Amino acid sequence: MKPGHFIAIFGGAVAGSEAAQELSKQGIHTVVFEQNALPYGKLESGLPKWHDKLRDRQENMINEKLKQPLVRFIPNIRLGHDVELNDIINEWKFSAVLIATGAWKDRPLPVPDIEKYLNKNFYYQNGFVQWFNGNHDPQYKGSPMEVSDNAIIIGGGLASLDVAKIVMIETVLKALKERGIDENLLNLEKKGIARILESHNLSLEKLGLKGCTLYTRHEIRDMPLNVIPEDATPEEVEKNLSGREKILGKIQDKFLFNIKPAMQATKIIEENNTLKGLIFQHVDYADGRYKLIEGTDEHVYSPMIISAIGSIPAKIPGLPMKDEIYDVENTDTGRIKGYDNVYAMGNAVTGRGNIRQSQYHSRQVSENIVDQYLAWQDEDYEEIFSTAQDRVDQRLEAIGERLKRLPPLTGEQIREIDDRIKRLQQSVGYDGDYDKWIAEHLPPRIEDSLEH
After folding, report:
1. Three-state DSSP string of the chain
2. Best label site of 72, 194, 199, 357, fewest CB within 10 Å?
3. Which domains does the chain show, CATH number per domain?
4. Whole-structure pTM value
5. Are 364 and 381 in contact (CB under 8 A)?
6. Are the C-beta atoms of residues 14 and 22 closer than 8 Å to each other?
7. How far apart (Å, rounded) are the C-alpha atoms in residues 378 and 196?
8. Would you say residue 364 has pLDDT above 60?
9. How many percent of the chain have pLDDT more than 70?
10. Is the model's pLDDT at 414 over the cut of 70?
């Protein structure tokens, strides 16, 4: 083999696949290590399954990028678990390592003792949405989940609104089925719960449902449902704030969930070692901080609690963290502190739980990767995907300038890396036929089993 550079990329979704394709165009070898069987990240497990056409378009784009010349693929390999960062750097001897693993870890809910009820009747958004996306699959291997009426959802961003939609759709479908009415999940999402119930001369009250309630510490106008540019005029600021009220009003009218603003969970309600609900306090926002208002406790009982307060990158042994994200030393390249050739990309850098906020986060390290799956229209996603890819390309230009100052790997070194890749591929049962692997591991689609 000819001398050149070989780069390891961890994460095969939007950022990772874009990096692999662009590096391939420059004649640089890459290998994409993917922690799952499929390289699609939250396009597959986090984008609610009613976005079927968008999901398919974006996943097909990833497929084409990962099939480019000079790109290798290894599924089911997780950094820090199946391979160690120090080994990747010191033994494999890659020219550089790109971390595009995204934000998969739920931000912990700061309520004492609630974690002991995790996956009993307390859930986090990532696991909940993964269950929702896979529960129609007869081969689904996740834990069963019973979605309850009168659920508590904690959040305030677009993530929590999608969770509220899922809870309402699931509980209404169940109540309709008990009345002998067979409705379609995709139709319910497209037309809205209110319209479907009206067509059957029904209401939540007639179905015996209360609906879920979203609790947020924000006031309605402060909920991050759209982003106000830093240079907005006072008139533009007011227009955006009013727009938030309209956005939320339309969604509530369509899906019939409740909302309680300016409230924060502080304690669990526990009876006989069972989680029965939460105690909330009213909050006031002043001087850049949310402050609890003493004497405003409200005891809220609920059979199900879901936290949707955002996602953060998981800790990887060897990678320094700063607050909730990886500690980046050079914001032009995303170079991680303490390393000469390890770079972070996407939400592994920003840790943003709201992709619309991340879209406007260009003054800091940001590629706006859709790790948080949270917009309402397909065209919103298309714009964000395009922005994400452009910013990955900009980052790669900066990294490329650093690579030019490094001596290329010898042909023998490249061959040794290739041999290691083949052995690791064999260990996970991947024979190098990308299309066959995808076809064998793609789960059944809800739209194929429903008439709509």
Report:
1. CCCECEEEEECCCHHHHHHHHHHHHCCCEEEEECCCCCCCCHHHHCCCCCCHHHHHHHHHHHHHHHCCCCEEEECCCCECCCECHHHHHHCCCCCEEEECCCCCEECCCCCCCHHHHECCCEEEHHHHHHHHHHCCCCCCCCCCCCCCCCCEEEECCHHHHHHHHHHHHHHHHHHHHHCCCCCCHHHHHHHCHHHHHHHCCCCHHHHCCCCCEEEECCCHHHCCCCCCCCCCCHHHHHHHHHHHHHHHHHHHHHHCCEEECCEEEEEEEEECCEEEEEEEEEEEEECCEEEECCCCCEEEECCCEEECCCEECCCCCCCCEECCEECEEECCCCEECCCCCEEECCHHHHCCCCHHHHHCCCCCCCCCCCCCCCCCCHHHHHHHHHHHHHHHHHHHHHHHHHHHCCCCECHHHHHHHHHHHHHHHHHCCCCCCHHHHHHHHCCCCHHHHCCC
2. 199
3. 6-104+312-449 (3.40.50.720), 108-309 (3.50.50.60)
4. 0.87
5. no
6. no
7. 22
8. no
9. 89
10. yes
Q: Are 429 and 19 in contact (CB under 8 A)?
A: no
Q: Which amino acid is at 389?
A: Q
Contacts 24+ apart (CB under 8 A), 249-256: 251/161, 251/165, 251/376, 253/192, 253/194, 254/192, 254/193, 254/194, 254/195, 255/164, 255/165, 255/168, 255/169, 255/192, 255/193, 255/194, 256/168, 256/193, 256/194, 256/204, 256/211
Structure tokens at 126: 């990532």
Residue 163 near residue 306, CB atoms below 8 Å: yes
Q: Are strands 263-271 and 258-260 parallel, antiparallel or unpaired?
A: unpaired
d(C-alpha 325, C-alpha 42), whole Å:
18
Contact 188, 177 (CB under 8 A): no
What six digits make up the tokens of 229?
Answer: 């540019």
For 303-359, the pLDDT digits (tens) are: 999 999 988 888 999 999 988 889 988 777 889 999 989 998 865 444 433 333 333
| pLDDT surpasses 80 at 272 | yes
Tokens 């896979």 appear where?
Answer: 134
User: Which residue(s) pair with 79 in the sheet?
Assistant: 83
The residues with which 275 forms a beta bridge, in sequence order, are 270
Select from 433, 441, 436, 439 the least CA-distant residue to 37.
441
Nearest CA to 309 among 230, 224, 375, 241? 224
Distance of alpha carbon 100 from alpha carbon 9, whole angstroms: 7
pLDDT at 368 over 80: no
First to last CA, the chain: 53
Amino acid in the structure at residue 393:
D
Distance between CA 123 and CA 117 in Å, rounded? 8
